[in-house]
Each structure stands twice: as C-alpha cells, then as structure tokens.
Amino acid sequence: MSQVRVAAVGDVHFGLDSAGRLRPHLKALAEQADVLLLAGDLTKCGHPDEARVLAAELDPLPVPTVAVLGNHDYHADEEAAVAKLVEEVGVRVLEGDATVIDVGGCRLGVAGVKGFGGGFPGAAGSDFGEPEMKAFMAHSRVVAGRLEEALAELEGQADLRIALMHYSPIESTLSGERLGIYPFLGSYFLAEAVDRAGADLVIHGHAHSGSEKGVTPGGVPVRNVALPVIKHAYNVYELG
Amino acid sequence: MPSTPSDPEPDDYLVGHVHDALAEQLNELDVQVTLAAGGVYLDGIVLTEERRDAVAEVVRRQVGDRPVHNQVTVAPLDEPTEAEEIT
Q1: Which of B19, B27, B55, B78 is the best substitution to test chain A (most A C-beta atoms within 10 A)?
Q2: Of A64, A141, A145, A233, most Cβ neighbours within 10 A?
Q3: DSSP A177
Q4: Closest residue of A to B49, CA-based?
C-alpha cells in the first residue's frame, strides 16, 4: 500500500474579504498532498455569499477535497446552501456519511461529521434536567453515533480511515484554551465513536487557542488543524 | 448587599459584554479579553489585518475611555515546509 499525503486545515472562516487568501497556496498543495480535508468553519457567519467566495477560490480543486461544516457555517441557518455551493466545485461535504478516494491504488476512507460540545469525562454534561440541556446532550450523542456508523461502513471498503470533524474529540488538543469553555469545544462521545469503530487518524478544528497533537484513549492520533493553531495555509500528514 | 444599581457597571460584566459584541457584530468568538489596571488587553489570532482592526474598534465602543491594547495577531498563511508522518 502506497503512502497517502493528506493536507488539512480548519477554520478558514472565509468572508467577503477573503478572496485571494488560499489560491496562491493551492499549486504547492497539489505538489505536497494527494487530498485536502477542510475541518469546518468554512465561512465566517454561514452566509452563502461567503461560501461563493470560498468556492471560487478552490475552483478548480487542486486535489480531491472533503469537508465538514462547523458551527460558524450554521449561524445564518443557511448551512445547506453553504454545503451546496462548495459541492458545486467538487468538494465532498460530509455529515454523518463517508467517502472513499482512490489514491494511487490505496483506498482512503473519510468519515465526517460536524460534531458538537458536551465536555469530557468527569466534566461533561448529562442527559438530565431541563429540556434544553437534554437537547444539547442528545445532539452531541446523535452526531457521535452518526460518525461511528460512517466509520464502521468504511470497514473493508478502505485501506486507511480518517475521521474528519469540526469539534474536538479529546481534551489534549484543547490545551491552551480556557478550561471553562472546554464543554463548548468538544465531546468525548466523538472519541468513543472513533475508538469503537476504528480509524487511523482524526482531524478536527474549532479550538483556535488549542494544541495540534493528541491521541484518543484508544490510541488513534488526533490533529487539531485550526488555522490559528497550525499557523500555515494547511498541514500535511503522511499515512500508510 | 447594595440595593441600588451599581454605577459604573462592574468589570466582571464588561468582559462578558465585550465577548457578546464581538460575536454579534463580527462573528469573532476567539478573541480573549482581559481587564487590567492599564486597560483592556486583547489576544488571539484572526485572519486579516482588517479583522484585527475591526476587533479593536468594536471593543473601544464597549469600554469607554479605557485604553485598548490590541495584541491580536494575523494568522500567517504560508505553506508548510515538511509533512508529519503519522505512525
């Protein structure tokens, strides 16, 4: 099985002022990587006009590109339009599903989900109390369940599996953030889903003041690729 | 316990209101705001110079005559020089 080079970045937060921010780097990206993963927060406030700027920036795609949406992409209640606009230039947008990309004979599977908050063991919310709290935790469980199913579906169909999400599955890639906001930055349900279904790498964003590297309790490497964390247009990870 | 409204507003609330203003007016959720004797200190990373300046402007409107120290930086956007091998 040949090595797969994965470029990844999250939180590009494209706005109407962002044209020309990524385009100059896409030629180098095509030389350095086989696929590009976008870990959510494609836009600043989820407006379709922002997604149009990003779509124009990425067109033509330098390499096969897979994305998930982030919380910013939901802010204007136009998340479906945001996804459609980038899909029109060939980006595959995942939410609880998966895709397989042939990279030189290696089948790279990517399962994607936005994810959600909820917290981490010993400091997590519970399915208890007011309906709003139950709804918050229920959403966290539902999206983690979708991720587990999508990863499980890749079993046997892919040689390598990546779990792509916006929110963090673990605490260690949040290191540098204020402790009090951890429950809004991720959920251990996501890590449990990854460890149960299996994966070779987790890519996430969202935690701008966090840290790049971590690992799930089950031993799966985790990389926080939020742009302010990696301080590059993208990072490249070699798998296989 | 005071039974009359406090004037001026306690600092504890001001930081929260600054965060709200940044989220509502600029969709910037990742700027850290600290009040100190010398004024208001802003930290974090945004994506453009214009967004950095806009953050300071919104904060100035919230904090009156307190000095605003804008330590927010702009994210560099160069290409990585090496790849990491995941093992």
Answers
A1: B27
A2: A233
A3: B
A4: A17
CB spacing of B78 vs A25 below 8 angstroms: yes
Size of interface A-B (CB pairs under 8 A): 72
| pLDDT of residue A19 exceeding 80 | yes
Q: Which of A135, A136, A125, A118 is nearest to A190 (CA)?
A: A118
CB atoms within 10 A of CB B82: 9
The Cα–Cα gap between A121 and A134 comes to 17
- What are the pLDDT digits (tens) for A57-69? 999 999 999 999 9
What counts of helices (H) and strands (E) characterise chain A?
7, 13
**Buried residues in A123-153 as b, exposed as e (16+ CB within 10 A):** ebbeeeeeeeeeebbebbbebbebbbbbbbb
Per-residue exposure over A179-198, b if at least 16 CB sit within 10 Å of its own CB, e if not: eeebbbbbbbbbbbbbbebe
* pTM of the entire predicted model: 0.95
- Asked if A67 and A94 count as a contact pair (C-beta separation under 8 A), the reply is yes
A139 touches chain B (CB under 8 A): no
pLDDT band at B37 (very low <50, low <70, confident <90, very high): confident
- pLDDT score of B8 more than 70: no
